[in-house]
Structures are given as C-alpha cells and as structure tokens.
C-alpha cells in the first residue's frame, strides 16, 4: 500500500550535484504547504542547514510572518509558572497554543540561568555584608541622623493625615488594640 504523500526523489545525479532552481522552489513550496522538514530532508537527501538557507532565501513573507510569533513577557511568565507547577512542556505548548516545544525549553533554561545568577549575587552580597566592620564615620553618622529626622517627620505627617481622615470620614483606620480579625 502506498502512502498518501508522493515520495518523489530528487532528479539530480549525485549527492554533490547542485539542485535545480525549479526543484528548490518546489521543495520550498512543499515546506510552506505543511510537509514536515524531516520528511523533506530524508526524501531529497539534503542537510538541514541547506533547507534552512533555502527557506530564508526563497520562503514567502507570509510563511515567516505566521511562524515567527513574538510572546510578551507576561505570556512567558504564565507558561513558566504552569511548567513550574508540574505541567509538562508539551502540555504547556498545547494549552497555550505554542507551536514549537523548543521555545518553551529555551525559556525554562533562561529562567534557570537567571535564578542561578540571582542566587550567586545574593550569596555574594550576604558574604560582603558579613565582612564589613561596624565602624561609622562622623559624616556618615550625621547623614543617618538627618535621614532619621526626615523619617520621623514623615511619620508625624502621615499620622496627622490619618487623624484628619478618621475625623472627617468617620472611619476607624487604625487597628485598635485587642481587636479581633474578621472571618474571611
């Protein structure tokens, strides 16, 4: 029984003989119509990079517009959260409509690399903080005192605003001591 797709071999004489332009265009059209690349590679006995070069050179703009979709960072985060929560990469591709599994694999690798880098930076910062002496210069002490005074002024201003809001709006904003939490 023959398969539904025709298995036309290349019309060239040998492996090192160049393809005819008409044959190249026919192969590109087959790829654009949906024939898998692996099938084309085995049928015509060509290398993957050759096919990629032909697609870049002779492929239609519509084909590439359809293939190259840009994902927003929120879409990437959503997919990565789903994978982190136990969903397989293949399931995530189906659930979120991503055609190529390698895209999600690349996102996972990038996230792991970023997390590893962040943990290294955090460890370095903690080590450097532990090694610092506790000496404070007079200039630094003055600067800290000014920051403390400014923070106290802000606290006083905020407390005044809360007092005015409670008075005018007749709403209890501050938590009363001994108050019980409402049931959720």
Describe this structure in words.
Helix 1 crosses helix 3 and helix 5 crosses helix 7. It contains 8 helices and no strands. The chain has 184 residues and is mainly alpha-helical. It comes from Pararcticibacter amylolyticus. Keywords: Coiled coil.
Parts with pLDDT < 50 across at least 5 consecutive residues: 1-7
Compressed to H and E, one letter per element, the order equals HHHHHHHH
Give the number of helices: 8
Number of domains: 3
Question: So what's the overall shape?
Answer: elongated
Mean pLDDT: 80
Got a strand count?
0
Portion of residues in beta strands equals: under 5%
Helix content: 55-70%
Question: What does the main sheet amount to?
Answer: none
Broad structural category: mainly alpha
Distance separating the two termini: 67 Å
Radius of gyration: 32 Å
Brief digest:
With 184 residues, this protein is mainly alpha-helical. The chain has helices at residues 21-33, 37-44, 48-58, 61-67, 73-84, 89-96, 101-131, 138-169.
Topology:
Blueprint: H1 21-33, H2 37-44, H3 48-58, H4 61-67, H5 73-84, H6 89-96, H7 101-131, H8 138-169
């Amino acid at each position: 029984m023959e398969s539904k797709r025709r298995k036309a071999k290349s019309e060239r004489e040998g492996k090192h003989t160049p393809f005819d332009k008409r044959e190249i265009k026919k192969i590109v059209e087959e790829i654009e119509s949906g024939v898998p690349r692996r099938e084309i590679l085995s049928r015509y006995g060509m290398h993957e990079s050759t096919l990629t070069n032909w697609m870049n050179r002779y492929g239609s703009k519509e084909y590439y517009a359809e293939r190259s979709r840009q994902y927003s960072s929120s879409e990437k985060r959503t997919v990565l959260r789903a994978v982190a929560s136990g969903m397989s990469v293949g399931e995530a591709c189906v659930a979120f409509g991503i055609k190529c599994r390698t895209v999600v694999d690349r996102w996972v690798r990038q996230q792991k690399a970023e997390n590893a880098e962040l943990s290294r930076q955090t460890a370095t910062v903690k080590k450097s903080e532990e090694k610092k002496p506790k000496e404070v210069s007079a200039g630094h002490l003055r600067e800290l005192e000014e920051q403390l005074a400014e923070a106290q002024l802000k606290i006083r201003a905020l407390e005044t605003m809360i007092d005015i809001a409670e008075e005018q709006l007749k709403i209890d904003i501050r938590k009363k001591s001994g108050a019980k939490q409402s049931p959720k």
